[in-house]
Design a protein that fits this description.
CATH topology of the largest domain: Beta-Lactamase
Mean pLDDT: 89
CATH superfamily of the largest domain: PAS domain
Number of strands: 10
Bound molecules: adenosine-5'-triphosphate, magnesium ion
Largest sheet: 5 strands, antiparallel
Amino acid sequence: MRLREHLGLPPSMGIRTKLVLGVAFVHLLLMSIFVFDLVQRQRDFLLAELSSRTLHHAQVLAVASSAWVLADDLVGMEEVLESGGRGGGVQYAMIVDPQGRVLAHTKRENIGKFLLDRESRSALSGSREPYVYYESEKSLNAVAPILVSGRLIGWSMLAVDKSATSEHLSYVTRTGLAYTLMAIGIGTLFALLLSRSILRQLRFLLRGVDNLHSNILDRPVQVVAQDEVGRVASAFNRALASLRSSLELLNREVIERKRAEEALRRLSRRQVGAIEEERKRIARDLHDELGQALSGMQFCLKSMQGEAERSNSALEAPCQKLSSEVERMGVSIHRIANNLRPATLDHLGLLPAIEALIAEQLPAMGRNLSVKTDASGFRRRLPPDTEMIAYRIVQEGLNNVIKHSGASHVHLQLTVNHPNLIIAIHDDGMGIGGHGDGTVEEGAFEHGIGLIGMQERAAAVGGKVEVKSRRRGGTTLRAELPYAEI
Ligand SMILES: Nc1ncnc2c1ncn2[C@@H]1O[C@H](COP(=O)(O)OP(=O)(O)OP(=O)(O)O)[C@@H](O)[C@H]1O
Ligand SMILES: [Mg+2]
């Protein structure tokens, strides 16, 4: 990461860039090491070769000039230098006596002079073997003793130009650099071709993953390589195929399930309808038959009571008691019939029926509970099914509040918001107990059938009922009933 920042590279590099940079770097590194080593070896070799040539040259001069030095023949010495002291990069050559006086020189003006520089003086006092006594950037200086029967009679000295060696070395360095650049170029090209073949398959794979993300499962990845990436692509295709078949299976199951649910809903709607019909019939029978019979009985009892009163009979009191019993029975039968099938619901609609329910049922339960009702969106009557189910939910909801909550306030909200009728009953009672988020613990409704009945009724028209409650935080029952406009 730091190296990347240091090199000024972007934080995320593509495979192609990485491959190209990596190959270029490796080539640069290896070729630099190789060229450096090659130049060093060449330098050592060329210098060794130059020094051995120079020493040999100095020695040849020493041998060739020994007779002339012995004879003190300056002309002979000069001839030796003329023939052997030129060419081969020789800058100058000379013959000096043991004291350092120049006897012969390729540059004549130096003849007769003494060698005074430190290097030359120390060369003359050094070993009696030919050796390189001085080396500079530009030249190599060698000396060889002139010996006659082991006696030193002079020295041959030689300076050779080194620039040819330096030129050769810089030529080798330049060639090495050119090869380095060539290697980097070829490596980069190779890396580009390689990355192209890897990336091609990767690109197909990426497209496949994108398709999968967009839920397109019928387009397998094109497999264009047989390497590991190609195998990944094949494995991806296999996984895609098995995912597709699992999804198809799941879809079929979902369709089956939906069908079953729909059938169940139809059945339960029919059941709810049948129950309501039955209740209606019983209510009608109660009202028409029992109610009529009781009215007849009441009429008879009233006339018997009048008769007994006129004849001052002892039957008057029992007749009166019986008459008021029959009247009470009539009221009860009316209440039961109304409870079974509130006539208001059929004749006036949901809101008046609920108002009647609140007005009649709550005082009957003997509870001091204040109910606030809000209704909105009721512009016309809802379908009879919906009205009936809504009425039953409100009825059971209020019953539960009265029976279980101990609340003193209930807020009932009825909202028509097409396509749903929403019922919310909120009480400030003790609550059912539940989780922190208000959802009720599992098993809290196990004992009664009221809430289950509400849920079944709502489900019959594709709706739902939810209860949220907190211990001592009140309870909210919320029902959503979808309805079709009539
Ligand atoms: N408003 C409420 N406040 C507190 N507890 C409630 C409330 N509504 C329901 N409950 C709790 O939920 C349980 C289940 O209610 P449900 O209406 O299903 O049965 P029930 O009223 O006990 O019996 P049933 O309705 O069959 O006569 C109740 O027993 C009661 O403990
Ligand atoms: Mg109940």
